[in-house]
Amino acid sequence: MSSDNISNYVFSFEADGPLSQFVKLKLFNGFDDLVAEAYGKITVNIPKGLYKLNIEFNEQIIQRTYRVDKDITDSWLAAGTYSSIPDQQLLSSHEYYSYTAEMWSKKSTVGITEEVRNSSLFVFLRYPNKEVKDKQVEAATSMGEYFSLLDSTRKEIYTFDDHFIEEDHEVGWLAFNAPLSKGVYFLVYNGPLKREMPLYVFEQWQTQVFITFNLTPVFKSTRILLSRPWNGYQVLERDNLELDAMVQKMHNGIYYVPQNLIDRVADVKWENPMLGIIVCYAYLLSDRKDNDVLFDIIVDNIQHRILNDTNAPDILALNLLAAIHKKQVIPDSPLAYPCMLLAGMKAYMEQSFKQPHLIAPGSIVEQSLSKMMFDCVWTTYEPLAVTKGIGDPVPPPMPAMEEQIIKAAAPPPPVKSPDMATNWITASLFNKLITEEPIVGGINSIAEQYRITPNIVKENLAQISASPGALMDMITKLAGNDTIQINKTTKMVTENINKLMKGGE
Fold it and tell me: What pLDDT is attached to residue 388?
């Protein structure tokens, strides 16, 4: 019992384990009023009564009830939860996944060289466990079916077929590991629930992508790590747990970084720079100001001392976010390719409303915005068109028969643009254009509302103007056979388009 007040008692609760600093604790009294909240540990003097403690960790919310009539000390173990990262410290992993990933992250699966020593991309797909795999009677013949990898020019350089992967159909895992030069690549899935994901390979680093599979790939489960190619994937690393916890927080819109993790990230001797990148994103998206100077140093170290790359999309996004966070002049650095993290894309998109040149018209970045998915931390969108032909690096030499099989596999045809009735942008614009109310804010306001660039708005307005037949079909569906209403609506649409294109409202 506390000495300062005879009616008060000490309530102390602490989260244990390597992830304890990520555990949010909230203590409520019997009237459901918040008494105390903190990360990791709560110690508070409270009067006698009934209390409820919420323990929030990753996707879990655990509730405990306490009748306080004496001093109370309690704790809870913050163990790793479920993740695509095959680390045995996490409840969702197993030795037959973790050590398989470790082995194949150090070996090429594409036949160029057996041992990977330079920059590479490692992709590991796996089921939650062997038991789940056994129940998937309708699963694809291969987990790699419908997967392909494109280079920065959008040429297909690899497909995930037997020639370029290692796969265990019984246990349920697939590994792809290809030595690649520095730059942007696109992982494309053209099966059910189509997706495309931009990836970046840094010089002398291996980009590691882990995705859980369950009939189809679960993209919101994606985790991306960076490691030295000669180290490969490292099992039982504390960084794996912390990165997973950070991604979980960001997925829930929580931009929290424990101070001890900030202090560790300030050390330039990183084994996994992706943890540093995500920590920077989270801090710069938060309201904290106490470590601004330190994060200037951290971002500078990432681009100049650790990754040695100042043009990678996520590096550009961190510099943009740093300027926004500190209310400084926005860097004049247009985004040529999509960021790996969705937060970077959002930052560029929001700034492009004021500075359209930050996203080039017709660029891959702009094309992806109208097809963007928002169900995970990473940037994913409906696949864009593929350039015909085979890009570099070319597949390794192979026997004549196998070579003929590969050459016979033509890339999928370009994706056709939807018509006005099914294109959500033109359909939404049409609804604005038929109103008699003024369109406040003009094209930039519409772009901000739709989360696309002003150029996309202009292109779709031009498409409406250039498609009088399709426009008339939409107006007729709305007005029926009322000729007067048809003419009135047509005139209104035309006038509104002209006002918007000329910069009026």
Answer: 61
Q: Are 333 and 316 in contact (CB under 8 A)?
A: yes
Q: Tokens in use for 480?
A: 């029926």
The region that residue 338 occupies, defined by phi over 0 for left and psi between -120 and 50 for alpha, beta otherwise, is beta
**Identity (one letter) of the amino acid at 88?**
Q
- What is the CB-side half-sphere exposure of residue 347 using CA atoms within 13 A? 29
User: Could you write out the DSSP letters of every residue in 364-379?
Assistant: HHHHHHTTEE-SSSB-
pLDDT of residue 370: 87
Residues linked to residue 115 through DSSP beta bridges, in sequence order: 107
| Strand duo 183-189 + 195-201: pairing | antiparallel
* C-alpha span between 319 and 350 (Å, rounded): 15
Report yes or no: 235 and 98 within 8 Å, Cβ to Cβ.
Answer: yes
Cα–Cα dist 264/249, whole Å: 19
Chain centre distance of CA 292? 24
Provide the residue type at 409 as one letter: A
Cβ atoms of residues 154 and 147 within 8 Å: no
pTM of the model: 0.82
Query: What is the strand order of the sheet 41-47 is part of?
Result: 41-47, 8-16, 72-77
Bridge partner residues of 390 (DSSP): 156
Number of H helices, E strands in the chain: 15, 19
Which residues lie closer than 8 Å to 42 by C-beta, 6 or more apart? 11, 12, 13, 14, 25, 27, 36, 53
d(CA 227, CA 234): 8
Give the pLDDT confidence score for residue 408 in this predicted structure.
Answer: 32
What is the spatial distance between Cα 494 and Cα 474, in angstroms, rounded to a whole number? 14
Q: Which residues pair with 55 in a beta bridge?
A: 25, 62
> Looking up tokens 């079909």, which residue turns up?
473
pLDDT at residue number 418: 41
> What residues of the chain score a pLDDT lower than 50?
2-3, 5, 391-418
Tell me the C-alpha to C-alpha distance, in Å, between residue 354 and each of 243, 357, 422, 443. 33, 9, 29, 11
d(CA 131, CA 97): 13
CB 417 within 8 A of CB 181: no
Rounded to whole angstroms, how far apart are CA atoms 84 and 219?
Answer: 10
State the pairing for strand pair 120-126/147-150: unpaired
Q: Which helix (H) or strand (E) holds 43?
A: strand 41-47
Q: Provide the b/e sequence for 186-212 (b: ≥16 CB within 10 Å).
A: bbbbeeeeebbbbbbbbeebbbbbbbb
Structure-token pair, residue 420 = 């006005």
Residue 75 in tokens:
């704790």
Q: Between the CA of residue 411 and those of 118, 156, 188, 415, what are the distances in Å?
A: 28, 7, 12, 12
